[in-house]
Design a protein that fits this description.
By secondary structure, this protein is mostly helical. The protein has one domain. 80% of the residues lie in helices and 0% in strands. The chain contains six helices and no strands. Helix 3 packs antiparallel against helix 5 and helix 4 packs antiparallel against helix 5. The chain is elongated, with a radius of gyration of 23 Å. The termini are far apart.
Length: 120
């Protein structure tokens, strides 16, 4: 009987320790925090612009998933092609001010990624 009680106590302690470790881990943010969607939220888009972007995203939803399945250079080329198409669409949708602000946000994000890579 004592062995069963000791085993139960040990199991509870082990569970509590593992639960405490989970609390220390930072929460995952899903995709990159500096992704294009996060940047677009900072541009104060109009309802029409949001609608146009939503339609574009809906039409091109599967392209990113297909590109993610590829490997190496093929994957990079496919992702670059998707990004170029998205940027062309954004050029049509955004005002000059919004496009300028987006370019600044992208430059800042790129600099942050470069700085982070250098510190690793």
């Amino acid at each position: 009987m004592k062995k069963i009680i000791m085993l139960a106590v040990a199991a509870m302690l082990a569970f509590n320790v593992s639960a405490a470790d989970d609390d220390k881990k930072p929460a995952k943010k899903g995709r990159r925090a500096g992704g294009i969607q996060a940047m677009l939220k900072q541009l104060d888009l109009t309802a029409d612009q949001k609608k146009a972007l939503a339609e574009y995203n809906k039409e091109n939803k599967g392209k990113s998933a297909e590109a993610q399945k590829l490997e190496g250079k093929e994957r990079r080329a496919a992702m670059k092609k998707i990004a170029e198409a998205r940027n062309a669409k954004l050029k049509e949708i955004l005002t000059e001010e919004q496009a300028k602000k987006l370019k600044e946000l992208q430059a800042k994000a790129q600099a942050d990624r470069k700085k982070k890579a250098e510190t690793k």
